[in-house]
Amino acid sequence: MTLEIAARGVRCERTRWESTATVRLRYAMADLGHAVLSAPVAVTAHPAPFTTALEDAVDESLLSGCRDGVRVASVQGVDAAHLVLTDTDLSDCLFSGAFHLDQLRLEGRTVFAPMPAGWHRRGMRLTRWTRRRALAEEHHWRAQSAGQPAPPPGHTLSPRQWRAGPHHPDPGFTPDPEDVAALYRQLRKAFEDGKNEPGAADFYYGECEMRRHDRTGTPKGERRLLWGYWLLSGYGLRASRAFTWLLAAMSLTVLLLMGVGLPAHDPDPATSGTLHGSKISLHTSSPDPALRGGWSQRMTWARAEKATRVAVNSVVFRSSGQNLTTAGTYIEMASRLLEPTLLALGALAIRGRIKR
Fold it and tell me: What is the per-residue pLDDT for 316?
C-alpha cells in the first residue's frame, strides 16, 4: 500500500499495519504513537507536489503558510524494527516507550533538536553549550531541571531556550536522565549498525551527558570520572577542547621550568684525586644542578627555548636529556604523564568524526 498525503497533520495513533506500506507526506506533522507494525512501514517526506493520474499537480493552496518538511510527533509504543523514516524532522519526536529502537532505520536528511548553543548564565555559573543533535526528551528534562516556565499556547520558543515537554513541569511524566541515556544508547547503535560512526557521535555525547547527571543509576565515582572526561575532551569528541588543554599544559610546563626547573647553568663535572705513594686515585663527580638569580634572570629567551624543548619532548614520552633541578624533574614527570594523554584524546576526537 502507498499513501500520498499533503496535510497539516496525519494521526496514525493506535493503527494496525498488517502489510508493507509506504507513506509519502508533505507539510504534515505525523503521529505514530502506539501504532502496531506487523510489516515494514516507511514514512517519507515527498519533495515535490503530488500529481494525479493525468499528471496534473494536486492543488495545495489550502496548505499555504504551513511549515516545509515533514515532522514526526511520536513513535511511542511502536516496534521500531519495522519503521523507516526518511528526510523527516524529529526535533519534537517522542521516542520513550518505543521497542527495538536500536533497529530503527533513519535515511536521508534527518533533523533532531539542536542544543541552545552559546554561553548561558544560571545564577553565578556561566556555561557554554556546543552544537550537537539532541533528543526532545533531553530538552524536556533540562527545561524541568532548569525551572523554565511553561510557554503560553502559540508562543514561539527562542533558540536559546529548552523545549518544554507536553506535561511540563510535571516530573512524573518527564523522562529522567537514566531513561534518556537508554534512548541515546539505542539510537547510537542504530547509527553504528548503519555504518554511520560520525552520525552516532552526538548520541554518544548525549548518553554520557545523561549518565553524568544521573544521580540514581550512576555511582558518584563514575559521575566524577565522566565529569573529568567531559572537561578535558568532551567525552573524546571535542578535539579543540583537548588541544586547548594540551597547549595550556605545555605553556604551564614551560613557565614552571623557567621559574624553578632549569638550573642557572649546566653543572660541569669535577675531578678530584689522592696520591698514595706512586699511585693516584681519581674521582669524577657532577654537582647537583643549582638555581640562582632573580626572576629577571630566569625569564629569558634562552631558558624559554630549553623549557620548550623539555615540554615538547614530554608530549611524546621522551626525556629531553636536559639537566633539571629536583623540582624540574618532577615537573617533567608530571608533563610526560598528562600531556600525551591530552594528545591521545585530541586524536581520538578527530578519529571519531572521520571514522567510517
Answer: 75
Residue indicated by cell numbers 566524577: 224
Cα separation, 82 vs 327, in Å, equals 64
Residue 191: per-residue pLDDT: 92
Q: Angle CA(165)–CA(100)–CA(75) in degrees, nearest 5?
A: 35
Query: Distance (Å, rounded) from C-alpha 255 to C-alpha 251?
Result: 6
What is d(CA 218, CA 169) in angstroms, rounded to the nearest whole number?
Answer: 24
* Residue 261 Cα distances to 15, 175, 321, 330, 331, angstroms: 74, 53, 13, 9, 7
Q: Name the one residue in this structure whose C-alpha cell is 518505543.
A: 98
Rounded to two decimals, the pTM is 0.84
Give the span between the Cα atoms of 279 and 283, in whole angstroms.
Answer: 13
How distant, in Å, are the alpha carbons of 229, 252, 297, 328, 349 from that of 247?
Answer: 17, 9, 25, 19, 16
Give the type of residue at 172: G
Strands 70-74 and 29-31: parallel
Amino acid at 206: G
Bridge partners, 258 (sequence order): none
For each successive 10 residues of the chain (356 residues), what is the average pLDDT? 94 95 96 96 94 85 88 96 96 94 94 86 77 93 86 76 85 90 95 88 94 92 94 92 93 87 69 70 65 75 84 76 78 87 90 78
Per DSSP, what are the bridge partners of residue 24? 4, 44
- Give dist(CA 251, CA 95) in Å, integer: 46
